[in-house]
Structure formats: structure tokens, C-alpha cells
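User:
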Amino acid sequence: MSRRNWILCGAALALLLVGVIQAEQKRSSYAPVVITEDFDAIVQRMSEAKPEIEKKHVALLEERYDLSDSPAQGVTMSRGKAVQGGVRVKLPDGVSSWQELAAMSPEQIKAKGLWPKGFLPLPHPNHPEGGMVFPKFHINEIKKQTGRDLTRFDLDFDLPDHLLPEYPPPIYLTTRTDLGDVSQGKVITLDNYFETFNGILNPKQLEGLRLLVTPFPQQQFNATDDRRSLRPSEGVTCFDCHVNGHSNSTTHLVGDIRPQEFRHRLDTPTLRGVNVQRLFGSQRALKSIEDFTEFEQRAAYFDGDPVIATKKGVNILERGSQVHFMSEFMSILDFPPAPKLNILGTLDPTKATAQEMHGQKIFFEKGRCAVCHIPPYYTDNLMHNFQNERFFKPHMYNGRMASGDGPIKTFPLRGIKDSPPYMHDGRLLTLEDTVEFHNIVLGTKLTEQDKKDLVAFLRCL
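Assistant: Predicted structure:
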């Protein structure tokens, strides 16, 4: 071959390599299906990277929050776990109080860079990677009961246990309010669901519950070479996140946004009270619990990618029976008792304190909370956009792009003290944090006493 031909071949090869590199860098809506790296090499690479990734994320949490174990005096969740108190989001440098910050306009806060970092979207523990991450206490319980291991070799859950819902949470049924907590203090799994609920549920509800505690393949937990469990996995159950029909704050990323840096971290919401809701998914606005159930199984378990779902073992539910049975059980999950509320969902003045009554007045009037959170369940079944981007400039941190959240569904506030952390991504750790956040976003100019009283009212719901 002549020197000229060698040069031409070399140039062609260079162009080909450039094309390959460009193709690799090009954004895609799809996850890679064919994994070219050996699984053992993946485990070694990601395990070695894990300490530095977690160190970086812990630094972000500590920069944003006071993560200490500081319970509110005399306030517990339904089964007795202490409710954490106090504002945990740290004020930005140069601001002496929340009152000072609330007195500024959105334009001033944005221009001076004073939007608290704890009010920015909370990134996933490893945002570029994403995926389901379970709290250690749930991993241990499921392994003890069923032998399934929900440990990821590349990542651990990030928030301290004292800032999460109580475990296991109680189960209340709209159909059998006389029974109180029917969970008997257990985490309901495939091992014990029948003995616990046989004779309480009808056959359809019992079958629906069985499906809710049956493991199916999921993005990180399956049998393929791009899983994140050391051994091939049976998968996860609906109740691995929505434990006992409530929540253990398991996190992952929403499946309906691309590219990766714009995807929202998801704080698992409770299923209590889904019978009174008309929208499902924090932003998807699915119109029925049946739609949500089917969507989760077909694609959301796989980051919203039906192509990768086909590879990993998608579970196609039959709409007329299986989806209906699952939905029928979920639709009888009730809110926890609220002994200070009357049948209209507001405070009974003979049972509430003066502080709680004043907090209710703030909620309905000065605080403007009831514009969206309407009793008796404290939701309007709509979506609202707070336009938080008024307060900060878009920027990237830990793989997450801080930008507008867009419209978010109005979650019910009944039983809210049992469901920390707050907001759709869990960025607010306490009810005090949520009051400070909304005070600034809504411009309500609440006094310190107003805010304390409002929190006292919220704890009654």
C-alpha cells in the first residue's frame, strides 16, 4: 500500500473514531441495552468510587442542614417515634435571621445569591447514576424475613434514620376503622400478609395485597449484567418503598424527565388516602390509581424506559383483574387518627389548645395554606407551580441542575407529621422547614409566633 493510501486510511480511521466519540457524547432518551463491560469490573469500579461519591454527598447535606437528633418536645408519630423539630435548613452567610430573609424580594435574594441551599432541589445520593436506594433498616428487615437483599454495591441511603418515618408504620383501613392498626407491628411481606389479613379483606383485596408484596424485576435489582446488586435479584416489591402502604423514604429519580441532571429526586409518598386523590405522580398527573399502578410496573421501575424493561423482565399486569385488585387494596388505606379534628377536618375547640387554634387561623387566613390544602383531607387535587426559580440562578451541583420544579401536585396534609421529609424530593426535613420555605415563596410575612403556631396546627392533622 502506498504512503498516500496509508495516510488516507489513517484519516478515515480518525474520522471514524471522532464519529464514535461524538455518538457516545450525544444525548439519548434511552439507557444502553448492551453492556460491554464485564460485571466483575463494574462492581470493582463502582465499589472503589463509592467512598468518594458518598463523601461528596455527605458534605452537601452537612452544608445545607442541621442533621442532629433533636426531637420536638411531646410530639410523636402514630406508633410513638419522636417527631423531629426545629428549622434544619441553614441560613446563607450574611443573613442573620429568617425574618430578614423573608423581608427581601425574590429579585434581591436572587441577585445576592441568598437562596438557602437547603431550599434548592435535593440531589440523589449519586445523581448521575440514580436508582432505588433503600434505608438500611428496611434492607435488614426484608433480608431477615424473605432472604432478598436490597443492598446496592455502589451506594447507601443518605439521610439519618431519625429524620425518616417510623418503622414499621401502622396500617389503618377505611373499611375497618374499629380495628385501629392492623399491621400488628410487623412489616407486611409475602411471608406474613395472608395470616395478617385473611378474614379482614375480601378475596380481591387480598390478592391485590399479595401482588403489592411480590417482588418483580426493577432497574437496579434484577438478573442482568447492569444490575446494582451483587447477586442476581428477584427484584423489588411495591411495598419495599411504600412499606405497609405508607413510606420509608426510599429514594430514586422520577422516570419522566430527561436529561439525567434535570430528573427530580423522589421521596416516596404515602399511599394513605389515595381514595380521595385524583392525581397520581408528583408531576405526571396520571388520572387514576390504576393508571399509576400499571405505569409503575411497565416503565417507572425501569427509569421510564420500556426498552430496558423488556431486557430486565417487565411485569405486564392484567388491567381488568391484577391492576384492579392492587388498586382496590390501596384505596382502603386510611389516614392515621387525628383526635383533635372534627368530622369536617378542622379543629374541635374543646380539644385543641389556644396555640393550635391560632395556628389553624393562620393556615386559613394569613398563611394562605388553604388556597391549595382544602379540608377535610387538605388537598385541592390540582397542580401548582411555585416558580422557585425566581429566587436563584440555574446551576449544577453533584450532578443535579438546579432549575424550576414546574407544577407539582398538591399532596394531602392529613397525617403529615408521620411523613417526613417533605416536598416531592425530600429537601425539607421538618415541618418548621416547610413553613419557612412557604413563608418566603408565598410572601406571607408570618411572625415567629405565627410560624410556631402553624406548626402546632399541622401536627394535629
